[in-house]
Amino acid sequence: MSNHHYYQENQDGLASNPASFDFYFRDQHFKFHTDDGVFSKSYIDYGSFALLKAFIPNDLDAPILDMGSGYGPIGIVISKLFQKEVHLCEINERAYQLSLKNIEENSADLVHPHQGNLFESLNSEYRFSSVVTNPPIRAGKQVVYAIYDGAYDRLVSGGELWVVIQKKQGAPSSKEYLTNLFGNCEIIARDKGYYILKAIR
Questions:
Q1: The model's pTM
Q2: Is residue 94 part of a domain?
Q3: Which domain holds residue 140?
């Protein structure tokens, strides 16, 4: 990807090269628009797919947050599958613009997108029943752990943080960090080298 990185606010100087793909999941059809400079342009990455396969929403009366949502696949699929209100939060301007297009394309009327760094763009009053994240590993451990800390602050009591992370990219240390932060952390699934972690507030 030359010197561009998807975990950046803007992708100025990176030519647009739009693409789209179809995604079939649990008898539903989704279409996603993507572009150069966003994470996992050609298809939903396996980590996000593993997270979607494992995730089950709880019954708490609060919306769900997809943190680091990219062009929106995780949050849009969850919202449509479970008829839940979902907020997307993404730093990359191009990915955010694509998420607007994908919300419209998939008639995901319960999805609310936000652009900004981590939790900064979210109203400080917002609280969530679940936070799901496929964290931007290449942005560094500091960013990943800031997502965990922010999720802890923003979850309602009994709310859940769901994380997908590869074993070789730090799943064991993430599990340890979350156990210290939340007082618990469970490995929900192991899937082709990816761990799905869940911590309860």
A1: 0.93
A2: yes
A3: 19-200
